[in-house]
Structure formats: structure tokens, C-alpha cells
Amino acid sequence: MSITNSVIVPAYHEKLNIKPLTTRLFAALGNEGSKTTELIFVDDNSQDGSVEEVESLKKQGYNVRIIVRTDERGLSSAVLKGFREAEGEYLICMDADLQHPPESVPKLLDSLRNHAFVIGTRYAPGVGIDKDWPLYRRVISSTARMMARPLTSASDPMSGFFGLQKSYLDRADPRSINSQGFKIALELLAKLPLPANANAALGEVPFSFGVRTEGESKLSGKVIVQYLQQLKELYCFKYGANNLVLFLLFWSILVLYCVYQIYSLLF
Ligand SMILES: Nc1nc2c(ncn2[C@@H]2O[C@H](COP(=O)(O)OP(=O)(O)O[C@H]3O[C@H](CO)[C@@H](O)[C@H](O)[C@@H]3O)[C@@H](O)[C@H]2O)c(=O)[nH]1
Ligand SMILES: [Mg+2]
């Protein structure tokens, strides 16, 4: 049977999460789904035993492999590398740390049959974010989400749990895609030539966002700065570089909003 689905997982120092993610994913896909799905970890030379872990799972019969990059680092570029190497027409991206439940992957794959792009959203009735996710991360995430509002109609463009039909990626000029930072879903939502019909373009699959139990988050100040640079570029892409007044106005509102959020949290 040929591979139709590729699940891409950017991974850096995630050895302890590789086995549970792989076994839970293929269990969720079932016998039939497992035959048509490959799992690809894209690791940036962690040298923590991730390679050996994947090799061992491969020997057990799982269709899993690991790409080790030694010349580049970063979440978004790792995802793009995995997408390029993928065999399947239906691509899924998810984190290694189990904050994205592998059991939701079949739902994303189903939705991808009818939509060019599918986002796993934490903002829908009946789902949410684990209560143990730190407050400062909630503030960063909701502020970042608000800043992306003018760029996409997706309810959760900050999500790293998403899928797309490869043909849409193939139609885009690779040089036009910003591969810096963490927010590759937003980048692709804004830049890919998705169908004009909103229903055909975007599907949303609610999921509950868990907390990491093994390893550490790689979010850093540098990633936040990269996000701000990415936003600036996306605003110029969408609204034109000359639209400076609009841009400055938006940023002023944003700064006021952030101050208000921090103030209401503290007092
Ligand atoms: N290859 C590679 N993978 C990386 C790198 N940095 C991070 N990753 C991998 O990318 C995934 C997400 O990284 P985390 O460090 O767990 O990110 P987070 O702070 O929990 O952020 C998550 O939440 C955001 C939503 O609030 C998501 O946008 C983001 O994608 C991620 O899911 C993990 O599998 C991690 O190993 C890197 O430089 N290289
Ligand atoms: Mg995480």
C-alpha cells in the first residue's frame, strides 16, 4: 500500500517523548491507517539517543524515520524540511512533547480530505488548555494570537498542530516562505495559494492542549523576536509595505492591549 499520509514532528532533545508519541499515534490510526501513514521526526542533532530510539521502533515494525540536521536549527525550518521529504499528499505537523494528542491525528486527516489546510484549535467549545499551562505562556499566546488576527481567519494560528495538502505547498515559491521561528502554520496560512472559497480552504479540528511531562520547552526570547519580525513581514506581504500608518496604528493598539492584559493580571 502506498503512503498517503505523512506526520512530521520537529524534535529537539525529545528522546523520552519519541516512543509514547509513536505508539500512541499508530494505535490511534489503527491497522488500515497505519499502512498508509509514515511518521518523520526532524531532529537538529540532539545527540540524546533519539536516533537509537527511532531505529528501535522501526525494528518493531513502525513506519517511522528520523532526519538529523547538522547544518540548521529551528522549529519552522525543521517542519519545512520534513514536508519536503514527505511521501504523502496529506501532511500533518505536530509537536513531539505530547501537548498535541496523537489520538486527534485521524480527525485532522479526515478533515484534510475536504480542506486544503486544517488547523488543530484550542479555542472551541468543549476543548481548552490544560490548567497547568503557565499563566505567562497564556498571556504570550493570547497576545500573539490577537496580533495575527488581521492575517487569517483561523481561530488558532499559533497552533503547531495542523495539516495541509502537499499540492498547495508545491505551488508556493519556497523562497517566499519565512522559515525562522516557531509559527510556521501562520506563515503557510498567510502565504499559500489556498482556495478562495473559505470552506474549501480551511478546516478546524478542536483539541485539548496538554502539558509537557518530559523535557523542556524551547520557547525563548529569540523566538518571540522572530515572531515579531515575521508579523511585520506578513503585514507588509498582505497590506503592502507602504501602509505604514495602518501598521503603526495597529501596533499602538496592540501595545495598549498588552499593557492592559498585564495590568489586569497583576492587579
Ligand atoms: N528540530 C527542531 N525542533 C524544535 C526546535 N525547537 C523546538 N522544536 C520542537 O518543536 C516542538 C515544539 O517546541 P516546544 O519547545 O515544546 O514549544 P512550546 O513552547 O511548547 O510551543 C508550543 O506551543 C505553541 C502554542 O502555544 C505552538 O505554536 C508551538 O508549535 C508549540 O506547539 C517540540 O517538538 C520541540 O522539540 C528546533 O530548534 N529544532
Ligand atoms: Mg511544547
UniProtKB/TrEMBL annotation:
It comes from the Eukaryota. Residues 6-170 form the Glycosyltransferase 2-like domain. Its EC number is 2.4.1.83. GO terms for biological process: dolichol-linked oligosaccharide biosynthetic process; GPI anchor biosynthetic process; protein O-linked glycosylation via mannose. The keyword Glycosyltransferase applies. It catalyses: a di-trans,poly-cis-dolichyl phosphate + GDP-alpha-D-mannose = a di-trans,poly-cis-dolichyl beta-D-mannosyl phosphate + GDP. Pathway: Protein modification; protein glycosylation. The chain crosses the membrane at residues 244-266. The keyword Manganese applies. It is an enzyme of class 2 (transferase). GO terms for cellular component: endoplasmic reticulum membrane. InterPro entries: DPM1-like, Glyco_trans_2-like, Nucleotide-diphossugar_trans. Its cofactor is Mg(2+); Ca(2+); Mn(2+). Its main location: membrane. Transfers mannose from GDP-mannose to dolichol monophosphate to form dolichol phosphate mannose (Dol-P-Man) which is the mannosyl donor in pathways leading to N-glycosylation, glycosyl phosphatidylinositol membrane anchoring, and O-mannosylation of proteins. Component of the dolichol-phosphate mannose (DPM) synthase complex. Belongs to the glycosyltransferase 2 family. This is Dolichol-phosphate mannosyltransferase subunit 1. The lineage of its organism: Eukaryota, Fungi, Dikarya, Ascomycota, Saccharomycotina.
